[in-house]
Amino acid sequence: MPRSESSGLTRREFIKVAGVGALAAGVAPELLFVRHGAAASRELKILVWSHFVPRFDKEWYDGYAAGWGRANGVAVTVDHINLAEIPARTASEIAAGGGHDLIEWISPPSQFEPAVHDLTDVVRDAEKRFGKMHPLCSRSSFNPNTKKFYAFCPGWTIDPGNYRKSLWEKAGKPGGPVTWEDLVVYGGKIKREQGIQLGIGLSQELDSNMAGRALLWSFDSAIQDARENVVLDNPKTIEAVSYMARLFKESMVPEVFSWTAVSNNQALIAGRATYILNSISAYRSAQKEVPEIARDIYFTPALKGPRGTGWNSEHVIYEYVVPKYSRNLDIAKKFLLDLVANYDQAMYHSELYNSPAFFDAPIPKGDRGYKAVPGAKRLRDLHNAWFGDDPFALPGEATGKLAVLKDAERWSTNMGHPGPANPAEGEIFSTFVIPNMLASAAQGMRPDEAVKQAATQARAIFAKWRGKRLVGGRT
Amino acid sequence: MTGQDDGGGIRDRAGTLAVLMIAPAIAYIVAMIGVPLLLAINYSLSDATTGDPVHHYAGLVNYRSALADPVFRLALKNTFVFALVSQSIVIVLSRVLASALSMPFRGKWAVRFLIMLPWTAPIALGAIGWLWMYDSIYSPFDWLYRRAGLLGKPGDPFGPMTNIYWLGRPTLAMASVVIVHVWRLLPLATVIQLAGLSAIPGEILEAAEIDGARGWRKAAWITIPLTLPIIGIAFLFGIIFTFTDMTIVYILTRGGPVNATQVLATWTFFKGIEGGDLAQGAAISLFMVPVLAGIAALLLRMARRAEVT
Question: By the CB < 8 Å criterion, does B257 face chain A?
Answer without folding.
Answer: yes
